Structure formats: structure tokens, C-alpha cells
Amino acid sequence: MKIKCVIIDDEPIARKGIQGYVEKIGFLELVGICEDAMGLNDLLKQEKVDLIFLDIEMPYLNGIELLKSLSVRPKIIFTTAYEKYALQGFELEAIDFLLKPISFDRFLKAVNKAYELLRATNGISFEQDFIFVKVDHKLVKVYLNEIFYIQAMENYLCLYTSHKRYIIHKTLKSIMENISSDKFIQVHRSYVIQVPKITGVNGNVIELGTFQIPVSRNYKDRLMEKVVNSNLLQ
Q1: N or C: more exposed end of the chain, with fewer CB within 10 A?
Q2: What is the pLDDT of residues 173-197, one digit of tens each?
Q3: In CATH, what class is 128-229?
Q4: Cα–Cα distance, 172 to 168 (Å, whole number)
């Protein structure tokens, strides 16, 4: 999972320091750097942002005032030299409050916390052999070994088990970044299947018990290699 983040700070040295930290962490994707609140306000109208590294003392509009003005708030990690704002920051549900100068180990702890929180609240959180999917505003546990296949439908996914279909607001790419490549494989631009569920391959159709899934030519060689290596259908 990639977290799209923005740095906002009116001090060039502070911006450069945080940028250096961000670039060391593989799951962070820097999509913008702003010098003041108005620059961030404009950027949020153009980019989808998951996480903001937000300074507080800035000209025109401080970080607290900016955060209160947003109708939709990305997750926030405050980066400031002023401890007096800590209580206000946590009242605004900030993930963490980092005091300057910020050490890398303290920064890493904060972004790991952000990763776990975003993974849970964005619709899918992974732990051991099951996932949680957000369905009708609540998290529902689905065991991975129960999923036969996943179908992409525009910006939604359908997870098919033997007894139920779950619809979640995610992309196929995002879920493939988080499920095991040993068990799940993409066989079509719209389908991912669980390899151990395969009961037959008939031309360009994969049989998963009673389910029949198309396999496209671009994915078939990789599928057959996976089938042979897993000793299926022998």
C-alpha cells in the first residue's frame, strides 16, 4: 500500500529534512511540498492526499486553522517546534505530534502508525490469514482461504466466497499489493483468482468449483506455470 503524502512548512530547511526522511520510506509517496497553508489548500483541490506532514506556525493561516477549515481531512502528523499546540493537535485527531528537531526513528514510528491506521480505515486491513473489508460502514472479517476470486468493476471490487459476495470500494491494483502472490494470481484485467481453488482449466476458462472465470492470453502462461509448480491438476 502506498500512502500519498504532502509536506507543508514555511522553513526550507525543515521541508528538506522531512523530504529526506520521506524518501527513505518505501510506502510513502510524496505528491507535493507547500510553503504555506494556501498552497496546501490549492494542492488538495488537485491531488488525492492520504497524509499531511503539517507545520503549525505559518504566515496568513496556521496549521490548526487550516485543518479546521477542511471539510474532508486527510490524516495529519504535526511537525512543529511548539509543544503548546499538542493538546489542540490531538483534539483534531492528529496521528502524531512531532517536535522539531525531528529524529528519523521518531519520524518512522509516526509514519508506521499512520500506515496501520490507513490500512484499516481505507477498507482493507490485513492480519495473518484474514482481511477486514469495509461493508456498509463496518469492518467485516473475511478469511483469505474462503475467497475463490476477486472481480474488478470500475472503482469497486467484488470478493466471491462460496456463500457470499462482498463489494468494496477499492481497485484491483491496491488489493494485489497486499495479498499473497503465492496463493492469488491475476488471470485477466478484471479477475484475480485463488490458485488452490482451481479445479480445472478448460481452454481459456478456469474452473473454481462451480465458478468459471475467463483467462486472457497475456496471463495464461504465468497461470499455467503457477498451476504446474503447485502440483494442481495432476
Answers
A1: C
A2: 777 776 766 788 899 999 999 988 9
A3: mainly beta
A4: 11
Three cell numbers, residue 135: 461493508
As a whole number of angstroms, the longest Cα–Cα distance in the chain is 70
Q: Is the pTM of this model over 0.90?
A: no
Cell numbers describing residue 25: 520510506
Instruction: State whether residue 118 is helix, strand or coil.
Output: helix
What are the sequence ranges of the domains in the chain? 3-121, 128-229
Cα separation, 49 vs 46, whole angstroms: 9
Residue that has been written with the C-alpha cell 498451476 in this structure: 227
What count of other Cβ atoms lies within 10 Å of the Cβ of residue 227? 17
Q: What are phi and psi of 186, to 5 degrees?
A: -80, 130
Q: Which CATH code is given to the segment(s) 3-121?
A: 3.40.50.2300
In three-state secondary structure terms, 97 is: strand
Contact yes or no for 132/141 (Cβ under 8 A): yes
Identify whether the C-beta of residue 117 lies closer than 8 Å to the C-beta of residue 96. Answer: no
Residues whose CB is less than 8 angstroms from the CB of residue 20 and which lie 6 or more positions away in sequence, other chains included? none
**Cα–Cα distance, 47 to 27 (Å, whole number):** 18
CA distances in angstroms from 135 to 127, 165, 172, 219, listed in the order given: 18, 11, 17, 30
